[in-house]
């Protein structure tokens, strides 16, 4: 049995656990642990950086078993492990919180876009590539001119800044179908497999350059960081 601990607590950085399964993928060995801190790449979010007993690994979702498995990074090898063996696992917490901040900021920008009457079309929460894309069911004349696009972007910025200032909580629950639903207070709810900050006040340096319109889509690029604790 494997517990997706990265959902229960974004900020858990280290744990003692046991080997739940071992196997191979494309000829390379992998290990799965019971208390899994490692978030695999998916849902527009990159994978965590992690370690098993000091050996650097990359987490990957194994489609055959459904487990998140740890595979050795290039230049390292996994030690010989057996089922039930105790191991220490840890993640790069600053990298995790950076990913969580970008993912949460993306949901917040989606909420602000919905308030403009737009509909989500696509998203990407990777560092340096983060963007939310919308369509407008009804024509938005502001988007026809540079000045109008800046006006629309500023409306998004204001709504995002107000939500962060209110420090609304970020929570999640499983619905009746078993899907994980993430809530930004009453602002936004959506099925999501990513990691998130505890509350919107954890977001810092959320920057939205003037949006672009391309092939009928409204593209809002953004950057964000996790607020450093004082």
UniProtKB/TrEMBL annotation:
Molecular function GO terms recorded: hydrolase activity; nucleotide binding
SUPFAM superfamilies assigned: ThrRS/AlaRS common domain, Translation proteins
Keywords: Hydrolase
Ranges annotated as spanning the membrane: none
PANTHER family: ALANYL-TRNA EDITING PROTEIN, THREONYL AND ALANYL TRNA SYNTHETASE SECOND ADDITIONAL DOMAIN-CONTAINING PROTEIN
Name used for this protein in its record: Metal-dependent hydrolase
Natural source organism: Streptomyces nodosus
